[in-house]
Amino acid sequence: MVPRTTFNREMEELSKEITEMANASKTAFERSVQMIADMDFSLREEIRALDKRIYELNEEIDKHCLDIIALHSPVAGDLRLISACLKMVEDLNRFGRYATDIAELIDDFEEGKAFKRFESLRTMSCLVVGIVDDAVYSFLQRDAIKASHLHERDDAVDALYDTIFREILTYMMEDPRKITVGIDLILVARYMERVADHACNIGEYVYHMVTGERLDPKLRTGNVEQPACRIFEHPDPRTELDLK
Amino acid sequence: MTIAIHTEDLHVYFDKNHALKGVSMDIRMNEVTAIIGPSGCGKSTFIRCINRMNDLIPGCSVKGKVMVDGEDINDDDADVVDVRRRIGMVFQKPNPFPKSIYENVAYGPRLHGVAEMVDGKLKRRKHTKAELDEIVEHSLRRAALWEEVKDRLDKSGTSLSGGQQQRLCIARTLAVNPEIILFDEPCSALDPIATAKIEDLLVDLKKDYTVVIVTHSMQQAARISDKTAFFYLGDLIEMGDTKQIFEKPQKELTEQYITGRMG
User: Fold this and answer.
1) Which residue segment(s) compose the domain that B68 sits in?
2) What gap in Å lies between CA B9 and CA B193, rounded to an integer?
3) pLDDT tens for residues B151-164?
4) Distance (Å) from the alpha carbon of A208 to chain B's nearest alpha carbon
5) What's the pLDDT at A1?
6) CA within 20 to 30 Å of B72's CA: A27, A94, A232, B17, which one?
7) What is the pLDDT of residues B205-237, one digit of tens each?
8) Nearest by CB to B259, which of A76, A212, A213?
9) pLDDT digit string (tens) for A189-226?
10) What pTM does this model have?
11) How do residues B52-111 score in pLDDT, each as one tens digit?
């Protein structure tokens, strides 16, 4: 008989739950970007449903982890997985919340068009989708190398956010009629920047879970290649914030 | 930190059975070192080498060095009685003598006497009653038992509860002023409350003594030890800081054992 059958079953169950949550969170965020890219506002319902499921899974996983700690006293790799799960659920939950926030902010066709035409925002959304994708992948594949490089890509997102903020501020100062849409777009950029931060947190947990070592995000190795964008396949050539 | 016990290429055979296969280990002074591993891995055999308890087993032969304070305790001229005084041992099952509580603790000091220099020569004399009273009280206090038994020191040691009996055995060991105390699964016959008291005591004792404990409870090892050594089939697989062993073991075999997937 394999030792600790019940414990092994509980750990497998936990792995399934966290995998479902990671995939749901990633999908919710991708859908929010997709909704803007395709002007497909019907995706909003799917995003809300995913966010609801993400919240439920957050509660279930949190409880499940505490049950396993209380009843089975996990150590070593098992303990690191549970520790990672307990922290990851908070970040994954934020993916769902920000996806819903983005879906609710961009609520008309004109705002969607403005977003699409604003190249910095498009670039940023591509970067963040890539980071989220790799954060979830690194967890599912236990890939410490990939997890350790997420911070470097987050630097590019942070720089873009600063650029976007300044650009939109300029447009709003030039034309007060653009203030409403401008603030919405700044908020979208801010949510995406936060999503990238949460994805980097996941990278840190994954790195510790796999290697047992703490990742120092300050020790970055330099620039890394950004993967191609999967969502904006045909970017709009115009770069100006065109609100007409 | 100073090394209290150093073993080098230590082998133990029980007739043809090779029970310990070249164990080299340093045990540091004033620390609790836990020895873990599945049944039959050589944990108890190892600690019994540290105070030559294996000498008493027919067919047992020990090869390699066990250095305590720079002296090999297996040397032909080593004083076995003195080795066992300096390196005390507490066993799995409490084994008080069928005597009073007082006599249980006073027995060792009475046997060894007091070493004194008289005219440049080392001589032994008997303890006075006052000296013995002081040793008994000090040892029982150090074993966290004094308050529970001070009014009934003349009662039989066997009348105490299991946990109290085990602390009496610890007091008996402390009474002869050892440097090192070996514990061979000291809590396996005790309930959780008695176990917690012994665990607190072990952590407290390390201030004055070097403590080595064999335990089947990995949680116990994790709770009380500074260093943990994992044995498997007579080999020392891994030794390190307890936190490191339980959070990030270096060897796959250690991880499999402590996570319960092997053994």
Assistant:
1) 3-258
2) 39
3) 999 999 999 999 99
4) 10
5) 46
6) B17
7) 999 999 999 999 999 999 999 999 999 999 999
8) A76
9) 999 999 999 999 999 999 999 999 998 767 665 555 65
10) 0.79
11) 998 889 999 999 999 998 899 999 889 998 899 999 999 999 999 999 999 999 999 998
B interface test, pick of A12, A75, A213, A214 with most B CB neighbours within 10 Å = A75
Q: Residue B240: which residues within 8 A CB-CB, separation 6 or more?
A: B227, B228, B249, B250
Report the distance separating Cα B244 and Cα B225, nearest Å. Answer: 12
Q: Is residue B245 part of a domain?
A: yes
Contact across the interface for A3 and B247, Cβ inside 8 Å: no
Residue B165 belongs to a domain? yes
Residue B263 lies in a domain: no
Q: Are A174 and A124 in contact, with CB atoms under 8 Å apart?
A: no
pLDDT at A222: 57
Q: What class has domain A5-211?
A: mainly alpha
Q: Number of Cβ pairs closer than 8 Å across A and B?
A: 35
Q: Which residue has the tokens 């002869």?
A: B176
Look up the CATH number of the domain holding residue B189: 3.40.50.300
Domain regions of chain A by residue span? 5-211
CA distances from A113 to A40, A240, A242 (A): 12, 11, 8
B192 in A contact zone (CB under 8 Å): no
Residue B8 lies in a domain: yes
Taking CA–CA distances from A214, the nearest residue in chain B reads: B248
- DSSP 8-state symbol, B153: T
